[in-house]
Task: structure prediction
Amino acid sequence: MSLQEESETPEIESGETELEALLDDLIVDTDDHENAPAFVIRPDTVQETLGRLKNEAGYDHLSLVTAEEYPDRYESIYHLKKFDDPTDEVSIVVPTDSENPVSESAEPVFRTADWHEREAYDLVGIEYDDHPDLRRILLPETWQGHPMGLDYDQDRPQMVPLRENANPLQDDHRSDADSDTMFVNIGPHHPATHGVLHLETTLDGEQVVDVEPDIGYLHRNEEQMAQNGTYRHQIMPYPDRWDYISAGLLNEWAYARAAEDLADIEVPEYAQIIRTMGAELCRIAAHMLAVGTFALDIYGDFTAIFMYAIRDREKAQNILEDLTGQRLMFNYFRLGGVVWDLPEPREEFFEKVRTFVNEIPDALEEYHDLITSNEILQMRTVGTGILPEEVAKNYGATGPVARGSGIDYDIRRDDPYGYYDELDWEVPVEDGCDNFSRLLVRMREVEESAKIIEQCVDLLEDWPEDERNIQANVPRTLRPDDDKEIYRTVEGAKGELGVYIRADGTEKPARFKIRSPCFSNLQTLPEMSNGEYIPDMIAALGSLDIVLGEVDR
Amino acid sequence: MILQTESPLPDVLADLLGLSGFGVAGEFVAALIAAFIVGNVMLAMTGVAGPWAKRKITAKFTDRIAADRIGPAGIGTIPADALRLLSKELIVPEGADRPAWDIAPLIVAGSAMLGFAVIPMGSGIQLADPEVGLAYVFAVASIASLGMVMAGYASNNKYSMLGALRAVAQNLAYEIPLVVTGVSVVLFTGSLRMSEIVAAQQETLISVGGIAIPSWFAIVNPFAFVLFLTANIAEVGRNPFDIPEAPTEIVAGFQTEYSSVYFVLLYLGEFLHIFLGGAITAVLFLGGAAGPGPESIGFLWFVVKIWAFFLLTQWLRSAAPRLRIDQLIEVGWKGMLELSFLNLVLTAVIVGVVA
Result:
């Protein structure tokens, strides 16, 4: 895995001097993040710096905003990438003093910074100047203190009298008789929100005037949980609980990739192939559910397509169960490899996987007959939920959502890891920018995943018996060097899933930050649905394929 | 209403039970008994359809097994479900507009029951056969929309309100094409009387190899049949036109707030409407109770036909996506309305030329 990164190092170096020239008057200091140059700037030059990087250097993807508190200061880190080349990264570090942590907001430059900075404010306590709507996002409005801050008192009671708690019904327009609009709470319990999501919706008749997602119902502070676990074994079970729609191995890989790069662990090739196969099985299972539930949103009943998708997902689940011993919370990856080898007898397992993969084209043909070629479904999805390419980029949308908007961006290909660059497959891109395109992208991705799995099985079958090495030799306790920082991403089922880790020389991470693709993708919902009809908003929400466990973390 | 004297069920019963000697009172009692029989037959069918047949049919379409715990093929789930539904708590939402909220389920269920009064079900089962039978059945069937609006408005729930508004918009969009297409059948028969519409379809259209093909209007004018079927599915509010309910959008719409007995009544009403829709289709286009065999088993054929319609609605439910309300209105006003008038004019020309 680290092979590729080493070859890219010179490129980054050369880019670094150019960037230094570009930002010459703004840089206060430089930092050494593992795979990106990091520049320290003053908190009042955030917009200027990011603006230059976006418009002049082409860093058009604000992947993540990490906020953390040090004993003497607060820091916001803007992790920038290019949609054309995600290996070309740069981190902008914005320290603010601990007495008065105010930093300029990046929202005018990158729309996606809106939610990311709200989260930073909510959990860490940094305030952002010029932010359009700096409120808590994950925790209730009335929450006392910032849980990721150093002086946070866990035992402080959080009981808030009802009268002080925001009443979601208060904004009801009943008293305002002259108003033409109607306020409706869609969720947190609603059949189409796919979990506990609350959409504060303003309607004008059947049309959506404004929709504001209210998230955080499933917030568990997974980041803090990871910070309390040791690198070696205690963190790996948590990623399964981010995107729990059977995308567990994809999530585990996000942590594995970051931690392995941080601790310089070389994963044996054989283990990489098993990982690749497992991850793609997860992707198929996740996309099957996405297609099924999207159809459910459009059809309105548990129809044939939903049951067929679940039936085919079940086959992937059974194989994953054979492989990992679990159906949902796999906990199969280990730093340096996987926990155990393929199930015995191996031939039987390969046969099962082959049968599954060979059935995929027929199954998809059936789906196409049932849904994509259905005229009513086309009426409902073509041209609705429009997300133009530029808007998608501005919101940091990734995964099938970005690829449905014509953005040719896939971490598996553009920033290769695992065994993907050795295999023959394609990245499906559709440029319709609508609900239909996103559906098509997912269905085509299933096909590509099947191709990858087939090639993996071929490789695994012929692998020399004495080289079946499933785990590298990893020390029992990992203590990466102090102040080593890394941000690594993988292609999860919903998009770019990343993990930022800062080590402090102990066996636990000092800061563990998750870049959730659903979090960024969900932010585009108002763009897609304002001015549209309610059913189209529901369809757009379904086409985003969010998992609240990952949105809220 | 002028009751035709031929042999509606009440008269037969009156003769049978010797009630005809008691004058008006005897007729009244006979009519009550007849209505009781017809009503219970329909309710029994609904009882089979709702908790059991619907599940089994959908399960077959979607690769599942469905109810199979109680009795053979799970048929025992019907009494179990009835008990379960009726024993639930009746929750009245705060601020509900009573008694409108209480009356609405009765209207939805009752309007469908009223429709069956004029349907000739074969084997001599027909409560009344007024001259304006077809107009009557269309009229009472659309009263259900009123019930939906009442339910939605009185529930004090925004989703319900949206559902009620959708029901009205949908009703306006499909009702005219439905009635106009029905009128094209009347042009053939020259009568609104249900029994005469059925009788007009009994003649043999053509004989192919000894098999007589009857002149059912579905065969005479398949275009009108398809049009009527589409409008009828919209009338009963099934997929792809289940827009007033739309569980994934407005959470069952007008019935969101109903529970227990009221919910059962609403559901009953919906199934009765499906059967009434099937009955109207059967009478207008499928020769009523006609079928092979002696005339006395006509009722069986009639049941087969309305269950076929029920099967069609369930098939669509498993296969067809839902339209958006504006798309439905477009289909109704810009498509079906024009087509139905075209069909009417063509029928008039054909009838004028042939006759």
